[in-house]
Known about the structure:
Layout: H1 3-16, E1 26-29, E2 32-35, E3 40-43, H2 56-64, H3 86-99, E4 103-107, H4 110-121, E5 126-131, H5 136-144, E6 148-152, H6 157-167, E7 173-179, H7 191-199, E8 204-209, H8 224-228, E9 236-240, E10 250-254, H9 256-265, H10 267-270, H11 277-288, H12 294-313, E11 324-330, H13 332-344, E12 347-348, E13 350-352, E14 362-367, H14 374-383, H15 387-390
Parallel strand pairs: 3-12, 5-6, 5-7, 7-8, 8-9
Antiparallel strand pairs: 1-2, 2-3, 4-10, 9-10, 11-14, 13-14
Amino acid sequence: MNPIENMQQVLEQLQQSGNLRSLPSVVYDGRWVTNAEGVRMLNLASNDYLGLANELSLREEFLSEMTPAAFEPTSSSSRLLTGNKTAFVDLENQLAQMFQTEAALTFNSGYHVNTGLLPAVADANTVILADKLVHASLIDGIRLSAAKAVRYKHNDYAQLERLLRQYAPNASQIIIVTESVFSMDGDVADLPLLVQLKKQYDNVLLYVDEAHAFGVRGAQGLGYAEETGTMGDIDFLVGTFGKAAASAGAYWVGKRIIKDFLVNRMRTFIFTTALPPMCAQWTGFMLRHFPAFAERRQKLAELTSALSRGLEAKGYPALSQSHIVPLMVGDSKEAVRLAQCLQRKGFYVMPVRPPTVPEGTSRIRISLTADVMLSEVEAFLSNVPMASEVMKGGGR
Ligand SMILES: *Cc1c(COP(=O)(O)O)cnc(C)c1O
């Protein structure tokens, strides 16, 4: 078989197992999504958690301060060459101040941070202990690093403790890697416990990805670390600007020495043209508003509890502790079928299937945003079938 025929065969296998992906052909209009058949659906699949991406008043305010001279659409270069524009320096100072850390560093995306940071800091004598459910970008970072890696069962801290006892005496360092709010189950890591575990050793570092918590959790919207009072104890506290912050890029915050080290060693920071400075300016503008978004965070929490309670009442397992709410189905084809059914009813939800989630745990992933209305959550719930009708195909 030639290589192209081989690809064809792989695609056919994906099709048969219900796991074939394709780019959605839909048109976006604010909170709404219209499909090729003209069905208009409420977007319940967006990462725009605070509902800011369509907020014209913010754009107007930003643009009123903007001039053609201040609008810089390109960095032309890596930060280390001629791309270290003032907008990045300002944004990093702003982040360090917000998080009350010595230093901050920004990146082109969360994918860049997660694929670049671990390879930079982990040598062959490092052991990485990562939660089984961390994001694909972290898995790629672990694979690109020289470290030995062990995945512990999702949020199983007894197992993590055993692994720490086993590896800490001989490793040069151990890096615990977790998300704070998990992408797919929407549950949270026990950050205070992780900090406590790490502090029992002098060679253990903690890496926390706040992609789904930044903007959403904490009094200032700084994330779940802020909410749990653990910000100062996390060595690699990272998050992205492309979700709740309605911008693009990502951050790390922590100690000055780590920043200097990353600037020297992190390939996904060094060998890429920095984002357009205007992105950093927009991010800085949005971050200045973060404390004022408290009402949106509150609204999101209310929508979340209404949705979670409603799904539980229909017999779905209550996994979520956040605005990301999985509707567990099990079988991939069944998940696709249910998503299509809900879409026909006017709710844009997407099936999540392997390899994004483990085999047999295909689900509909609902992500709530602060611009959804309570009445819309109720209407959605009334269209969701009972769990017993959909969970025939496998479950967890
Ligand atoms: C979205 C996401 C990323 C990637 O961030 P981008 O800025 O979109 O590249 C990383 N980690 C987690 C947990 C995410 O959900």
